[in-house]
Amino acid sequence: MNAENVDGLYSDHHGWLYSLLQRRLGNRGDAADLAHDAFIRLLVKPRSFDSFDGARAYLSTVARGLCVDLWRRREVEQAWLDALAAQPEPFTCSAEHSAIVLQALTAVDAMLRKLPANVASAFVMGIVLEMTDQQIAAELGVSDRMVRKYMAQAMLHCMQLEARWAANAA
C-alpha cells in the first residue's frame, strides 16, 4: 500500500471513522486525534483490503484499541495527579518532569497488563505494597517458590522495558 492508497482510504473512510470515534468518546478533539492516529498506522504498517467493508472492519478495530489506550493513559494520568494532590506539602514539578513520569507509568502499566494476572499481582504486592513472599503466597494461594518465580518473571519484563527506554534515549 502506498500513500495514494492511504489517501483513497482516508477520503473514503475518514468521515465515518471520525463520527464513530466522536460518538464513542464524546469529544471532537480526541476523535480527530485518534482518527488521525488510525491512518498514521496504515502509513507506518501498510495493509491491503479486499473490500470496503474489510477496510471499515480494520479501522473499527484499530479505533477500539486506540480508545482503550487513551482511556488507560487517562487513568494513569489521573492516578498520578491524585498522588500529587495527596502529598502533605504542596508539590509541584515541571511539565517536562510530569510528562516523563506519565510516560514511564504508562509503560509500566502496559507491561503489567501483558503479564499473566498472578505475575502482575505478585509484582505489585511485592514492590508497591511491600508484602513478603509469604504474604503474597498466602494472598495468591501459591507457594513461596512460585512467588519468587513470578517476581523473577516480572523483573525480567522490567529489565526489558528499561533496555527499550535506554535504547530510545540514545
Fold and architecture overview:
This protein has 170 residues and is mainly alpha-helical. The protein has two domains: 3-82, no CATH class; 115-169, Arc Repressor Mutant, subunit A (Orthogonal Bundle). The chain has seven helices and no strands. It has helices at residues 3-25, 28-44, 52-85, 95-114, 117-128, 133-140, 144-169. The mean pLDDT is 87. Keywords: Sigma factor, Transcription, Transcription regulation.
Number of domains: 2
Oligomer: single chain
Morphology call: globular
What string gives the helices and strands in order?
Answer: HHHHHHH
Low-confidence stretches: none
Cα-to-Cα separation, first versus last residue: 31 Å
List the helices and strands and how they pair.
Layout lengths: L2 H23 L2 H17 L7 H34 L9 H20 L2 H12 L4 H8 L3 H26 L1
Name the descriptors.
170 residues; mainly alpha; Arc Repressor Mutant, subunit A; single chain; 7 helices
Question: In short, what is this structure?
Answer:
The protein has helices at residues 3-25, 28-44, 52-85, 95-114, 117-128, 133-140, 144-169.
